[in-house]
Amino acid sequence: MKITRIIEAPIALRSNISNAYVNFSQHTVSLLAVVTDKMLHGKPLVGLSFNSIGRYAQSDIINKRMAPRLLQASADDLLTECGSRISPEKVLACALKNEKPGGHGDRAMAASALEMAIWDLNAKLNDEPVSATIARHFDRPGRDEQVAVYAAGGYYYDGEASTKLIDELKHYQQMGFTRYKIKIGGADLASDLKRIDAALTVAGAASNLAVDANGRFDLQTALEYGRALEPYGLMWFEEAGDPLDLELNAALSHIYSGALATGENLFSHQDVKNLALFGGCRRGKDVFQMDPGLSYGMTEYNRMLGVLEGRGFNRRQCYPHSGQLLGLHAVSGFGLGGSEAYPGIFQPLGGFCDDSRFADGFVRVPDHPGFGFEYKNALLQEFQQLLA
């Protein structure tokens, strides 16, 4: 089996919303297709992916650096030992050939799009969901058939009315969600506390509600928010400060007794090691949110899990940032704590398959071959246009 073409194109997110730092109306994502000479059901076998949500399309890195390396490689150099599948580990290593270590920025997303497409391709060849392929590949006892899920939203909308947040969360509740995450840090503390109080009219117990500052705060502000949030008993307080400010996270962990969440903007297992060693993370309490779609793919994510478990943390403390099908299959295949979901935003990428159903805070993981992009109609249309 040989890779014959790699096709990438940027698409825009259909979202005019903001967190504490970013307005997403101009954000893009790289759609990617890896085409092979292997025939399946009368057509060339194709692996599909994208580079998660929250960064930008990685067109130049993919098309000018990484894709040429893969297309110039010998077919045998990219195959598994049995020769019947393409190896995600070998694809990642080839994509990173001649790249210096460290500096894990945009290239991590470019590499992840390529590596993830191989998982989709292999799972389709196995006629199974990616989560099952992950579980077998990494010697797991099996995938989780259903996973805990929370609805991520509560952004700052242009011209936001006081009832918009409540209406949004009620909509998620009617879909079957019981836990939610909203944004803070885009307003002053008093206004954000009012948003939390409004959200709790839907969420009920504070343990059903997480808040996310998207790295907005300096140390003094993070501690001020921590003291104000402490009495609530929230599900977690996410990314109070810059993701690389481990001193801030550690200081906050000393005064905030609830769960802290971070890691979505860490892209390597070395970064995760530093977080575990120096970030004040507490075993059995805090939440790790590394996203395989932003951090070199499932291969590197497995290394991250090894780092955490080697230091006494449990993989059930991991809730990947993602909100889409890439992350859902990672949660199921690796046996993680739960999945973020974007049921109404960041389209056409956000959320799961059109036939996914939520009940009592859980979702059944799709049985469709691959990631199941073909069963999310708006996204399928984008991939069809890419392949056309």
UniProtKB/TrEMBL annotation:
Name the needed cofactors.
Mg(2+)
Q: Which residues form the Mandelate racemase/muconate lactonizing enzyme C-terminal domain?
A: 162-259
According to the UniProt entry, its GO molecular function terms are: D(-)-tartrate dehydratase activity; magnesium ion binding
- Output the GO biological process annotations, alphabetical, semicolon-separated: carbohydrate catabolic process
Keyword tags? Magnesium, Metal-binding
Highest taxon listed in the record's lineage: Bacteria
Q: How is the cofactor bound?
A: Binds 1 Mg(2+) ion per subunit.
Output the Pfam families linked to this UniProt entry: MR_MLE_C
Q: Which residues does the annotation say bind Mg(2+)?
A: 212, 238, 264
Q: InterPro entries in the record, alphabetically?
A: D-tartrate_dehydratase, Enolase-like_C_sf, Enolase-like_N, Enolase_C-like, Mandelate_racemase_C, RHMD-like
Catalytic center residues: 183, 321
Indicate the secretion signal residues: none
Q: Does the keyword Acetylation apply?
A: no
- Quote the PANTHER family the UniProt record gives: ENOLASE SUPERFAMILY, MANDELATE RACEMASE (PTHR13794), MITOCHONDRIAL ENOLASE SUPERFAMILY MEMBER 1 (PTHR13794:SF58)
This protein is called what? Mandelate racemase
Q: Which organism is it from?
A: Bordetella genomosp. 4
